Amino acid sequence: MNKRSFLKATTALTMGSLTPAIGYNAISETNSITSLRNMTQKAKPITGAERKARILKAQSLMKTHNIDALLLEAGSALIYFTGVKWRRSERFTGAIIPRVGDIAFVTPYFEEPSVRESMAFEAEVRTWHEHEDPFKIVVDILKDRDIKRGKLAIEETVRHFIVDGIARMTTTTELVSGKDITRGCRMFKSTNELALMQLANDITLEAYRYVYKNIHLNMSPQEIGSMMSEATQLLGGAVQFSGVLLNEASAYPHGTKQPQQVKEGGMILMDCGCSVHDYESDISRSWVFGEPTKKQRQVWNTVKQGQELALETAQVGVPAGKIDDVVRAFYTKLGYGPDYQTPGLSHRLGHGIGIDGHEPINFVRGESTKLAPGMCFSNEPGIYLFGEFGVRLEDCLYMTETGPKLFTDFSASIDQPFG
Description:
Mean pLDDT: 93
Helix content: 25-40%
Strand order of the largest sheet: 4-3-2-1-5-6
Order of helices and strands: HEHEEHEHEHEHHHEEEEHHEEEEEEE
Strand content: 15-25%
């Protein structure tokens, strides 16, 4: 599920000054916005040395897979390996990592000073003018690295016009998928990456606690989302999404355009996340404003059981698809589904997460990749009853040598969603 399409109240806001510690998990003492304090002072961004180590790992994987170079364009992969944060446009900015030799960047001439500002380390930058073809520069870099033929791996989100442009410039270089290289690096988080993700999760949960105590009758999703975004920013997170679904809208995972307001006995489903130094959180909570009905309570408890079952199943060496299979089978025995039908769990059980809110791989049927230490996932079962309400509970986990660990504790109950 693409959360950025999911009823945002606000988009990313500028981070404030930095502040207190990884692992902070205290409940705000008051309902006042002034009680919120920036939590990111001790956060440590990824260093240039760690990014260079990532490049070395990518080069090692290239040797294993008989690939001569890897092409990146502006986006999360470029951030991951180089620190360069750049928008995608019709003008190509990217980098080439050769199997042997130094990385090289390509960007328009007038963008070079700005690109260099965000580079985590010094490297060659080749520029092109508006009347020139940037893809000729890509091929020239390959030739200068003694790659006149062979395999150029394309990072899996690179756009078609870039691939096509390079293909027009060379008949001796084979263009292949780069996912074995990039996934082989990005799927396995370091201690530093996990610490940043932990802090992002702590911030989101603390913002939730503040919002929970300040929701009142007749509020709109936009008002609640704005409150969540403001709290997240004050706590030091860069807001990624603050999604709010009320009442019947909670039955539709990506919402509805119909007007919504908080009402007595209505379901509140929130799906929110932030980032700290590029690394993201993703947490969903569902509860009722007022006293839950017997049916709301039963559905909530069933979703909670599914979330616990997913955590129990997610062990090292288990195929990722099995986590979805086990939970879906449990729900089916209770009369939900079958499969992805409603009333029931209509979406995958979870997704990878890191710099991107959604990264490979997923907890979804048919995914055979085995779980291994360093992998991070959302665990987000839901049950949706079209025309009535829906419940989704989402917390993220990371794999260790001994099994899964949660970034945040599961929601305690429909009556005490934040403990």
